[in-house]
Structures are given as C-alpha cells and as structure tokens.
Amino acid sequence: MTDQNQRITEAAAIEQAKQGYEAAFEVLYHLHKRRVYSLCLRMVSNPAQAEDLAQEAFLQLFRKISTFRGESAFSTWLHRMTVNVVLMQLRKKGLPVVSLEETLEADDEAPRKEFGTKDLKLTGSIDRLQLQRAIDKLPPGYRKVFVLHDVEGFEHNEIAEIVGCSIGNSKSQLHKARLKLRDYLKFMRAEKAKTG
Amino acid sequence: MTCSDVERVLPELLDGAPDGAFAADFETHVRSCPACADLVSDLKLIASEARQLAGTEEPAPRVWVRIAAELRAEGLIHDQDLEPESAPARPILVPASSRRRRWSAWWLAPVAAALLAAGSYVVSHSPAPQVAKQQAAPVPATSPAVDTSAASSPSAPLQSSPEPAKKSGKPRDPAWGTTVASAVEPGPSAEDQQFLSAVSTLAPSMRVTYENELQAVNADIRETQAYVNRNPGDEDARQHLMDAYQQKALLYQIALDRIQ
Predict the structure, then answer these.
(1) Residue B217 lies inside a defined structural domain of this protein
(2) Residue A43 sits in which domain range?
(3) Where do the H-state alpha helices sit in B173-206?
(4) Is A151 found in the same domain as A83?
(5) Is the minimum CB–CB distance between B3 and chain A shorter than 8 Å?
(6) Each residue of A37-72: pLDDT tens digit?
(7) Does B100 touch chain A (CB under 8 A)?
(8) Phi-psi category of B114—alpha, beta or left, where left has phi over 0 and alpha has psi -120 to 50?
(9) Are residues A155 and A130 in the same domain?
(10) Do A43 and A108 reside in the same domain of the chain?
C-alpha cells in the first residue's frame, strides 16, 4: 500500500513539476535524494563533490522533466542520468578515473592472500562502515564497476554501455574488485584483532 | 576442475548462468574444497552486503536549497500553491496561519540544539556504553540505553551466526556481531512522538514523510553508535555519528523553519 501511495504521489508530483510547482520538485527530490547522492558518493568518495554531482543530476532531470513520458520508471531515468552526470564530470575534471583497460594493465595481478590464510572466510558478517571504507580504497576503475553492479544493481551489459567497455571486461573488473575488497576486509579485521 | 579453474570461471559463474555441465563441475569442486567454498561464500556475501549500501547516504539540506535557487533563477519553478486535490504529499509544512498553531512548535528549536549538543558530547568523549547510555538519555530515540537491540534497522549487517565474544576483558566491548538483523524496530522517543504530533496537527499529509525520515536517521544513529561503542578510537566513525546527529537536528530545524 505504501508503495502504491508513493507511486501515486510521484506520478502526481511529476505532473505538477511539469507545470512548475516548486513543491512538486521538492517532493521528487526528497523521494530520490538518498539514492542519487549515495551513488555519487560511492563513485567519487568525496562528500563535497558528491553534493555537487547530485545537485547537477537533479538539475538536469528537472530541466528535462517536461519530456518525461512515463514509458519507463522515473527512478530508472534518474538513476541513469546520475551515472552519466558522474562519469561526465569525472572525465571533464580529469579526475583519476582510470580506464578499465589501464586498470587491467596496471593492476593485473592476483590479489595477495596474506591475510586469512588459515581463516579464509569472512564468517558471515561484514560491518557496513568497514565495507564503505574498503570500497573507498578500491582503485577507481574497480570501484566504478563494483558500485554500478553490486551497489546500484546495473547489469553488465548496461555497465558496458555506460562506461564504454566490453561485458567481459566489466565482469573481470567486478571480480577483481570483490577479491580486493575481501582482502581489505580481512586486513581490517586482522588489524582490529591486533588492537583488540 | 581445479582451484585455478574455479578462480578463472568465477567471474562468469557468480552472477550468471553458464551451461549446465560447466556449472556442475564447479559445484562439485566447491563442495569438496573448503578454500574455494569459503572464497565463493565470501564473494557472494560482499555482493549481497554491498546492495545494502544503495541509497543510505543523506545529502545535506543545502543541496536542495541550491537546486531550488537554480531552478528559480532559470524560471522553471514558481511558488504558487498546488491544487489541493492533485497535490502530492509535500515534504514541506504549510506555514501556520494562527498564533495558536505557531506557538506549539516552539520547543523544536531547543530540541534541535540539544540534539547537536548531545551529539557533540557523545562524539568528543569517546563513549563507553555506560557513559553513552547516561549521556544519550536526553537525546530522543537514539539512546543505546533504550535500544535493546543495537542494530534493529533493516540495514544492519547480516549475520549467520555470532562470533565468539572478544576476550578483551573490557566491559564496554560487546561481542562482535551480536547485532540481530531481524530485531523489531524500537518505537520513537517521547520527543520524536511530540515532533510527529506537531507535524500531524500542522500538516497531516507530511506525517508519513517525516516519520520515515526520522526512522532512517535514528537507525543510522543507532548503528553508528553501536559501532563507536565497539571501536571507541575510530575517529571517522565518531565523525559519522556526529553527522548523523546533525542530520536529525536539521530535520527538526527544517520543520521549525517551515512552521514559523
């Protein structure tokens, strides 16, 4: 029932936003702000930049809202637009977004398995803050694919289209990202055990 | 299939559906190899936990302020009221028109200030659970003292079985992973209930929105507080906790601004 009410609310807000009502824009913003901002933050790991990117994503959406015909979900449209905004801004500013191919060449080695040789398993629980920190440590190329796939739910064919790589590359980068995260998480756990 | 083969085919197998024979060999090997079984389990766990991170971060209120200003400057929005029958649920409160309504929200300002002050104190004094309980008492809905399940929010870490309690001898160091994902959400505090009552009185259509916002920020505070209790030396976590208190204070402040 809540989802249905929300959909009705969102549909009404979209129509009102097309007519220029500020309250309607605000409703749409509050409905989607977390998703948009979280995506930006995961991609750039910088709250100030993430705010700027989220702002730009919403502005682009609102400028084009009159063209939204409802063929797809509004959230999908916004989601896609946000990813495009992030990638475009990163390329424009020359921020360290390593291409997937460069990432392959620079970091194409099997993840070290120094930690947890005897205790390989993460034992069924991962602390959310530690996972966030581990994601922040990922090389940009790995982080981009991991965030898009595992956090945001894009499929590999979509990621390939968005970032301009092959589906095979996308899968390979994702796998390496997960392996790296596994190592980081075990390292954090080992460090924590040392400091007790 | 060998362990090397498993590592080679994992990118395809973990998320997709390969042909039947391939998958069968993979499953057979994983069942018989503890190392590969652990690897597969860990990678699946990371993927599933990552999904919990979607949409968990809250932007500062200034983001909307800037967006609105830009839209106004571009002439894309105007300030007329929406048609009542077609008005969606508004996250803003309709300004009260009567004095009788206006005074009823005066308490929001000191509560917002108290939230910020409590958050600052908790963060700066590296709380132990007993200290945190005492100090957090004036903070509505976020005190670990009233929250018997430290991570009762839906976004708490999943846990298949708790690890053994740490033998640190420190009374303030709860066992790792004792959070229970399925615990019932504690109810709102007295202050939160009063806040929601005010919202219900002044703008009934916004109650659900504010209630959801409060639940989200309270869950964030609870989780982070639990983490800080376990890791009192973690500066980032304490800053995160402070940010969460600030978010809650801002929520009250936004409501106050709208009412007055």
Answers:
(1) yes
(2) 2-93
(3) 190-202
(4) no
(5) no
(6) 999 998 888 899 999 999 999 999 999 998 888 767
(7) no
(8) alpha
(9) yes
(10) no
Question: Quick check: B42 and A54 CB within 8 A?
Answer: no
Instruction: Enter the tokens of residue A63.
Output: 């400028």
Q: Which domain CATH number covers A150?
A: 1.10.10.10
Cβ pair A34:B10 closer than 8 A: no
Nearest CA in chain A to B70: A59
The complex's ipTM?
0.77
**Vertex B36 angle, CA B34 and B38, to 5°:** 65
Tens-place pLDDT, residues A70-101: 767 888 888 888 999 998 887 776 654 444 44
Tell me the pTM: 0.54
Domain count across chain A: 2
Domain that holds residue B14: 3-48
